[in-house]
Amino acid sequence: MSFQIPNFLKNYLNNTKYRKPFENFVNNSTYYSQLNWQWQSYMQTIVRPCIAYATGSVDGVYNSSLSMSTGMAIVKGATHLAVGDKLFFEGDDLTVRFMSDIWAPNTGFRRFVERAYSFMFGGGTGVIKLNKDALGRSRLDAFRIDRSLITTNDGGEVTEAIFFISLLSNMQNKNELTYWLTEQRRYNEQGRKVISYKVFVKSGIENSPTLPSPYTTGVRFENLPANVQRELIKLGIKELEKETELPINDGLGVWLLSRTATNSCIPDSYFGDPLLYGLLDILWSIDVVYSGTLVDVLNGEGKILVPKQFLQETLSKLRTQYPGAEWNITNAELRGYEDESFVYVMPSMYDKDKMSPTPIQFDIRADQYGKMLEMYERAAAVRAGYAPTSIFPYLTPDNSSKTATEVTAEENLTHATNLAVHNLTLPVFNRALREIARQEGYDPTIELKLSDYVGNKLQFDQNVRENYAAGLIARENAVQSVNNLSQAETLEQIAKILEDQKVKAQQEQERMFGSYGGIDDDNSEQTAEYAGNRPGGSGDENTGDGER
Questions:
Q1: Radius of gyration of the chain from Cα atoms?
Q2: Structure confidence at residue 365 as a pLDDT band (50, 70, 90)
Q3: What are phi and psi of 414, to 5 degrees?
Q4: Where does residue 75 rank: exposed (0-12), middle (13-18), buried (19+ CB within 10 A)?
Q5: Which of 108, 128, 292, 532 could serve as 537's disulfide partner, Cβ 3.0–4.6 Å?
Q6: For residue 157, is pLDDT > 80?
């Protein structure tokens, strides 16, 4: 971000080591240099800055100054809304039971979904792939677009994929080499699906490793250290640079999650637009305002100003008295406040009362800056497709000045955006889940369900209850909507509700029996033995009068 700030603040930004995050701890320039020339401009000018803002990282000139990390907040908020508070499966009973009770918890499926959405929003496209470990267990992994090289056909199906995987590193200082693992999936000359691996020694400078070129020759398996070989075997990799058949039915087991149906820059591409595409100017403006607030705070500590001529006369006398000495007292104008420690010396021959220094206290314009930040944050959220308070809950609510239609329109914006994201991504997730079901030997009839966005949950639930009371919706739909349950959970819940109602009816029957027969009355000696088994009964059930 190019923003004119005082030199003392520039020096802090340039010299500090801990404020700036690293460039994802990996030098991305080597990745972009390996792209096809048709993609380099798009990836460098669109995807790269969007990922930098989405991750709050320093990438070249992006986010290199003071930043509020607003882009990261928008991406995290959108990810939370897309994933929702609950995910579940629908389909074949046995498959659903296996996937929900065994497979999903053991493979961290929810974490995978969150990573996939986060990578998709950040770079416009997230890459997911199916893996198998050494024991043959299936799992799904998500990759960011700048950790993969993807080729697609005219239908958007992945025909070749290369992944850069950082591994074989540990946090113990054993002075051992660390490595990159690259994985390539493609259709070979015979049209068969194949997979191959390569291992490269990490290169680059300290704290800034560079990605390897996957087209060069890697390290041979037998030349790797024993612990590295063991790590590869744990991943199910026993050979390097050798193509083996890929036992996957649905393509290469690699699918693309695109945030948008079309690409704004390359219409023929099946890559989506990043969430922050079109917001970079607003994000830059927010960072400028944020930088301005800090400048005001630092400048607001107060200054003492005196006529400049006194400094000039004092310097002249000092230089005359000590001709060989260097005097570093500033005589600069006050335009940049380059040195906050400067002082002016008042010569003794002047009248101090007439020529006294003038103190100036700069205002810290907190209210004005706050309003500007809110304005830009609202604009950023709306341009991303969300109601401002659904992304930034701390924004000052102004519902009192809005009509019900305007408030509903804001909530509908988030709902529509979330629905569009689900419509584009759930079919992709379902393809991956069906492939896993086949790999595990189950019926591939399964699909993922995610929670829908509901702006005002209390009002929504009340509307559902009123519709159910009016007989406009079935009990099953009401229970499922209010409690956000799957179909199986809904049926189970209804069964429990009916059972509870049956118990309550029985308890009410017993209570009524007691009130008529007097068993609840401490002064009554009548018991069920005399009253019979009917509520309000009066004796022997074979006679009309009963006995006392």
A1: 35
A2: confident
A3: -65, -40
A4: buried
A5: 532
A6: yes
